[in-house]
Amino acid sequence: MELKPVIGIEVHSQLNTKSKIFCGCKVSYEDEPNKNVCPICLGHPGVLPVLNKKALELALKVAIALNCEIDRITHFSRKNYFYPDLPKGYQISQFTGAIGRNGYIEIENKKIRIRRVHIEEETAKIFHIGDYVYLDFNRCGIPLIEIVTEPDISTGDEAVSYLKKLQGILRFLDASYADMEKGMMRCEPNISISVDGKMGTKTEIKNLNSFRAVKLGIDYEIERQKNIILKGGRIEQVTMLWDEEKRETRPMRWKETASDYRYFPEPDLPPLIIKDEMIEKIKKEIPELPEEKKKRYINIGVREYEAEIISQDLKLTKYFEGILNLYNEPSEVSKWLVSEILSFKDYEKISFKDVVLIIKSVKENKISRLNAKEILRDVYETGKEAEIIMKEKGFEKRWGEEELKEIIKNTIEKNKKEFERLKNGEEKLVGFFVGEIMKQTKGKADPKIVNKIIREYAGFDKG
After folding, report:
1. CB 290, CB 311: distance < 8 Å
2. Mapped to the 3 state alphabet, what secondary structure does 145-180 carry?
């Protein structure tokens, strides 16, 4: 029996607009509850929605960036369901039409097909406090973009790779902050197990809001379904919740189908007509996206590993390119960025100028790599400039080979027995002598150069 996981993902992400999708209420994530509301987003009888043009433009930009075909005429529909977070008793969405179709994202040489991209309105936010349920309607009516894949994903790791790529694209386009922890980007994987090529019944995990939860939730659900099938059981079409504490999925409700929502055309919104001129205008506004940046970085000498890490983060690409404007050594800068500077949470506190000075000082053997790490940490923690810290610590002193040779000769003279043992083959004593020299130079000598000179004196590196 061949059991193969089959996974599709629905992503809902809040679009970066100043006002809500069908009314003029402000979009704000910090105001007191229920401040930014009006009769339209509260669903009062007789009100008329008006589409936010900016929301449409951002959704169109995303659809184009995801390589989608653009629907020239599309409609809004009412998706009917009754839940406290939906004051109208229905959600305005798109059902028969979409902004974009048949797109794709490539991950690790695999193409994840995008079935559709459409826009809809956000629901209110629910808070469960003790025995009470509280509703904040500030969120209700914020424009959402929904992106639905074909079932092309096979593992939790692949799902995370896809989501990271998608998040990067949304951020580079400035279409969405896509902050999962704040609920601005939520993921709902649909998981089934194909048995000998025959598609199985799917379950959906609702509202996952971290990459970790996506991976763990999918992997757990795959194993749960496999175990049921292997025991001769039957998978039921259920909407699941991820229990972070117990690390397991649990049923939330029976899975709805399209007919359960009783979709019908939204009578208060006319058909949406997207003209060629609008598409061409949006195409010109699309910036260099992560994959394009990655290729460009590789072409200018950055290793693929570093190029992948840097290109996927908008803030990091700006930081990297800011340093390159002062010091055009892409390979060197990218290595430092990924291996050292990213270890600091708010790395942007370290100025471009300081980063360049530290990298140059190491390259010119003015300081050791160990010294550089110390200086970086001090710059980050104190806010002082690297040049000042280097002077305070005496790191501006440059130990050239001739100066080091003199110190090494004196050290050998004081440790003749150890040096004889070194010459006779005890190579571990190289470390002893390097340590002695580093003590005498207070860590300011380059250990690589010290090591090289000692080995030459011991006769290890001669012809």
Report:
1. yes
2. EEEEECCCECCHHHHHHHHHHHHHHHHHCCCCCCCC
Backbone angles phi and psi of 245, in degrees to 5: -70, -45
Identity of the amino acid at 43: G
Q: What is the DSSP string of 194-242?
A: EETTB----EEE--B-SHHHHHHHHHHHHHHHHHHHHTT-----EEEEE
Q: How far apart are CA 5 and CA 226, in angstroms?
A: 9
- In angstroms, what is the C-alpha Rg of the chain? 30
Question: In a 3-state reduction of DSSP, which class is residue 73?
Answer: strand
pTM for the model stands at 0.82
pLDDT digits (tens, 9 = 90+) for 197-213: 898 999 999 989 999 99
Q: Residue 254: its pLDDT value, please?
A: 65
The pair of three-digit structure tokens given for residue 202, joined into one six-digit string: 């799917």
Residue range 56-68: mean pLDDT, rounded: 97
β-pairing, 203-205 vs 238-243, is parallel
- Condensed to tens digits (0 to 9), the pLDDT of residues 288-337 reads 999 999 999 999 999 999 999 999 999 999 999 999 999 999 999 999 99
For domain 401-458, the question of CATH label 1.10.10 is answered with yes
Provide the β-strand partners of residue 250: 241
